[in-house]
Write a structure and sequence with these properties.
With 226 residues, the chain is α/β, with parallel strands linked by helices. The chain has helices at 21-30, 53-59, 80-85, 101-110, 156-167, 185-191, 200-203, 212-224; strands spanning 8-11, 35-41, 66-72, 90-94, 114-119, 137-141, 173-177, 195-198. The two termini are 23 Å apart. Bound molecules: D-xylitol-5-phosphate and zinc ion. Zinc ion is lined by residues 12, 37, 39, 70, 177, 197.
Length: 226
């Protein structure tokens, strides 16, 4: 994984066909996805359940780009090694998920993955102040985590702008997660985000047997940021 600030589209397989993850990952990559975003939910930190490390391990061989694993689970620490072993390139934990985010980030890098930290919409950007030298990515949630297809929360654009200034020259990605569409993508890209997660806006209208709409949807989001 080399670092750059160009806009990268990361489709979230939360909006994929759950009976077809492998083929869905191949389809979105063939249609222009830069990263694949994998949403892990535990029914405790967020009010929804998806899947765990075994599913990540199973889909790993179907991903050629970057496997970007977003952990919406608490506790996080007992599972980091398993997600790293499953082949995650990036493991992102929530600052709200426990009292020891610093230790969690140490553990993620210690397990050999890039470390990400996610902030819920209500969490101040200052919460990453003392963590910036130990992360590779900061994920600004632009919806409350748990479900795809929610409305973009506009107050978060200012948070992205502040975060971009705090990061300065550090090689840290700013990722946006939730409600990304061709309408909202330019707002966050202009504010300094480079990784745009999009679930419903990428998968709408397409399927494994008809993947062309995935490509059109990815292109439309990317074009809106230029
Ligand atoms: C929300 C997830 C997101 C979600 C985005 O908890 O972290 O990745 O899938 O979905 P859309 O793009 O539909 O808002
Ligand atoms: Zn996510």
């Amino acid at each position: 994984m080399t670092f750059d600030r160009s806009v990268k589209i990361a489709p979230s397989i939360l909006s994929a066909d759950f009976a077809n993850f492998g083929l869905e990952c191949e389809a979105i990559e063939a249609q222009g996805a830069d990263w694949v975003h994998v949403d892990v939910m535990d029914g405790h930190f967020v009010p929804n359940i998806t899947f765990g490390p075994d599913t990540c391990k199973a889909i790993r061989p179907h991903i050629k780009t970057v496997m970007d694993v977003h952990l919406m689970i608490a506790p996080v620490d007992p599972y980091i090694e398993a997600f790293a072993q499953a082949g995650a390139d990036v493991i992102t934990a929530h600052v709200e998920a426990g009292p020891h985010i610093h230790r969690t980030l140490q553990a993620i890098r210690g397990a050999g993955a890039k470390a990400g930290i996610a902030l819920n919409p209500g969490t101040p950007v200052e919460s990453v102040d003392y963590l910036l030298d130990m992360v590779d990515l900061v994920c600004v949630m632009t919806v409350n985590p748990g479900f795809g297809g929610q409305k973009f929360i506009h107050s978060q654009v200012e948070k992205v702008r502040k975060l971009r200034a705090m990061i300065g020259d550090r090689p840290i990605h700013i990722e946006i997660d939730g409600g990304v569409t061709p309408e909202t993508a330019p707002l966050v890209a202009e504010a300094g985000a480079d990784v745009l997660v999009a679930g419903s806006a990428v998968f709408k209208g397409g399927s494994v047997s008809n993947p062309a709409p995935y490509g059109e949807n990815i292109k439309a989001i990317r074009a809106a940021t230029r």
